[in-house]
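Request from the bench team (R.T.):
"We need a structural guess for the complex before ordering more zinc ion. Sequence and SMILES attached. Just send the tokens back."

Command: build protein-zinc ion structure.
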Amino acid sequence: MASIGRGLDALRRVVFGRLPGRSAAAPAEELGRDGPLTAMVIVAHPDDAEFICGGTVAKWCDQGWTVYYVLATSGDKGTHDPDFTPQQLAALREQEQREACRVLGVKEVIFLGYPDGFLRADAEFRGQIVRLLRRYRPDVVLTWDGFRQGFNHSDHRAVGIAARDAIYPAVRDHLYYPQDKDDGLDAMQVNEMLLAGTTDPDYVVDISAYTETKLEAVICHRSQLGNRSPEEIRRTWGERMRAANRARQVESFKRVQIRRPARQEKEEQPPAETAAAPASKPTER
Ligand SMILES: [Zn+2]
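Reply to R.T.: structure attached below.
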């Protein structure tokens, strides 16, 4: 159990709202409260990350986190302009993504170059993600919720499922993708996932101080904005928060903890029936 002082401190920095249809749960411990972490944002298209987590990434970078982006595609289908070839569009959108990353403070962006609209959560794609995780060794992975109900882009679904399958158990077990070991990339474990676009969010980041930085990053994606002005986007975000009864700008995620943090294990006695369970057993909700 966190001390009262710590709990209040977490509440000051993060708004944990009461979600419709759910009872008020104890606030989840804020990621990074013991110091800056390393995060990897794994998404399908340029502009995905800015819209789903641009404020969170700006906040993390400002707090000293190291953030990497992995983009499965370069968004080569994302236009109604008949004059664009897929190659021209991909080059433009990679450039826009790099600009957005500079605004937010992202350390590096990796483009995997899969064709837009045809992403599949297959062994090859999962292996690419495993390799990047073993190379960059993030504490936290932020990706799409691949199991979201209802309307969704197939690439968002595929990247969410592939990232999840990469994290458990492939990246942890050295016999998956053993070539990585030969290349000096050891197995590792990611303990925290944040899933965006979820219908069941339970982790909310207050981005009020970073809304303008997020907007600046979003408008780097000029090819995707149509006639929308920055003022219009800002207004839409404000209306959305008011509709959700939020007093502050937030980004919402579903948090999946793969292993309880060591400190928490020491402070809490696990129930008898789970005491012997391996620490790496997934505890997904
Ligand atoms: Zn997308």
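Two things stood out. The CA atoms of residues 95 and 112 lie 15 Å apart. Residues 44-45, 48, 153, 156 surround zinc ion (CB under 6 Å).
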